[in-house]
User: Fold this.
Amino acid sequence: MAAVMAMPRWRLWLEVTKPRVVALITFTALIGMLLSVPGAVPWQPLLFGTAGIWLAASSAAALNQLIDQATDARMERTAHRPLPSGALRKREVTLVALVLGNASMLLLWWLVNPLTAVLTFCSLIGYAVIYTVWLKRATPQNIVIGGAAGAAPPVLGWAAVRGEVDAGALLLFLIIFVWTPPHFWALAIHRRDDYAKVDVPMLPVTHGVPFTHLQVMLYTVLLVLVSLLPYLIGMGGPLYLVGAVTLGAVYLGHASALLRDASMPMRAFGFSLVYLAGLFTFLLVDHYLPR
Assistant:
């Protein structure tokens, strides 16, 4: 706690906007932009679309921490955050979240297109309000249903460039949507006692760790199958197929190890991040290879 209080002001603001999470969101949105057209992406949607989505994600992260302040204060994983530690006040975080959110909407509406602004607003509300306020405490399937908001960034990036949403954007959405449960449940297994303490009905709390292990395995199998779809519809080529199969085999190995050994959830969680970044990178590199 003392270390948080000693942080410089700029570092506290970075922490309240979850920079690592926002970076992953912005990365997947950028992938959606780059995959949406066969050649170079026009500079205006690339620049202003990326900035607008980043601002919206930062706003949603700040609102999430604002709403969850009392819960965060009781959990070991989150008690050090700027709000529960007292390093930042609720009023100033609220103001910054609103400024970031409004700046995002204005930027996207006027300098990108209204569709992207509307979809981004829906995603922001979906995560910061519907998931955080209601779903998170309503059902053990919270992360499955709420995962729709987290899976939206590639769709936002696609819409920023093309001004529409088609099958390619929805396939990117589907990959992240199926990836989210095994990714997050691995962390939830590791932090099961924390969630139980604050009465958040995460799957390991309500149905037990062995059942959650099984669900992680089943969703990982489904994810590997879904990851083959870009190749099957011609969105990705041979390089992507090799990358998807290789990454999928390693991820299945982690899920299988988790099923056998309950002490390894953070290995599966850590690799899930490598998997998603790697899968999208293979898709992007393959996209720009000459056919």
Notes: The radius of gyration is 19 Å. The mean pLDDT is 93. Residues 166-291 form one domain.
